[in-house]
Amino acid sequence: MPEAPAFCQWLQQTYVGASVRESLWLFPAIETIHLLGMAVLIATISIFDLRLLGWALPGKPVSTLGSMLLPWTWTAFAVQVVTGFVLFSSEAVKLYANPAFRLKLVLILLAGLQAMFFHATLYRKVDRWDKTMVVPGTAKIIGLVSLLLWIAIVTAGRFIGFV
Question: Do the domain assignments include residue 1?
């Protein structure tokens, strides 16, 4: 097991980390908020990705769907970051060495890079797709990769408590 860095040891001993770890109800309450945020995040990303793939809402312009979903996605992602960090602070030393936790973080990074690439390149031409209602093949591949990444992220998250 790799030795936890000083930051993890310090974080776990902070007031927040200790309070979450020692409270009977605080960890489950924060985890519930984390799970609700995850549900919104996964739902909005999945709906968008399924639209890219042509498997859902075929008559809905991609740009319209994106403008409807993106604020919800960002809000849910912010909830995930905040609650995830608070939960991490309660068990930072243990989680640092957890391979499922590390995999989850790497997958989140990959999903973020993939989304940044998509929005910086292909999505800039979304108005053309809206006119023709045909999503480019590359965007479909990105939608599929995104779906698979988020399924893997959720799966890795579930494995955290079991490895």
Answer: no
- Residue 133 has what DSSP assignment? T
- Entry pTM: 0.90
How much is the average pLDDT of 23-41? Answer: 96
Phi, psi of 24, rounded to the nearest 5 degrees: -70, -35
Whether residue 156 is contained in a domain is answered as: yes
> Which residues constitute the domain of residue 40?
6-162
Number of structural domains (the chain) is 1
Please list, residue by residue across 6-36, b when 16 or more beta carbons sit within 10 angstroms of its beta carbon and e when fewer do.
eebeebbeeeebeebbeeeebbeebeebbee
First to last CA, the chain: 12
**14 assigned to some structural domain:** yes
Residues near 86 by Cβ (< 8 Å), separated by ≥ 6? 16, 20, 30
The rounded distance, in Å, linking the Cα atoms of 97 and 109 is 18
Which residue carries 């989680």 as its tokens? 95
The two tokens of residue 153 are: 């992220």
* Among the ranges given (5-9, 19-23, 50-54, 139-143), the one the predictor scored with the smallest mean pLDDT: 5-9
pLDDT digits (tens, 9 = 90+) for 1-19: 567 788 999 999 999 999 9
- Identify whether 72 is part of a domain: yes
